[in-house]
Give the backbone structure.
Amino acid sequence: ITRKIMLDPVQGIGYIRMEGFQDSTAQELDEALRSLERQGMRALIWDLRGNPGGLLDTAAAVSERFIDRGVLVSTRGRANGQNQEYRAQGQYARKYPLALIVDENSASASEIVAGAIRDHQRGVIVGRKTYGKWSVQTIVRLPGDSGMALRLTTAKFYSPNKKNYSGEGIAPDLPVAASEDLQGTFFRGRTQEEISADPDVSEALQALETRM
């Protein structure tokens, strides 16, 4: 989590920027959500633009923060051990309105989240079509001290509705044309006004205000 901020204190709309899915990400998300909730957050913009993904378990865990029941993601491979199903346990889920921002560089774990949000009708997806990487990769270390390894695709993952968007990506509910200055608005250091003026964020704000 590289940015958390209240974008609209009057309406209670917060913003969280997530740039990866690592071991600590679910804990970071919990801390960010609690911080914004203490400031009166009643709706959230969750920014996954440019997020290349990361750990499958973490993608399921962060999705569970907003989905209280049902399948979050499943995997299918040639070996039985590669066939798994991740389900929400209902322990952490928030109920407030959610807008998820994605783009053509939102891949893998980011798409797991988008697929879960889409299939469970949990929020509105804003931006551009995601990358389309719907496969599980395993790192196999090679013998010796070379430090070399092979990255093997061992399974595919599927949305709760059993869809695989490999090579296709997930299309947003609210498409927004790419902005030339978009890259600069992703990251830390931008003011509240600059973030709110971002075309994707502006669209997400309008969508949440309508739903609230």
Summary: The CA atoms of residues 129 and 171 lie 4 Å apart.
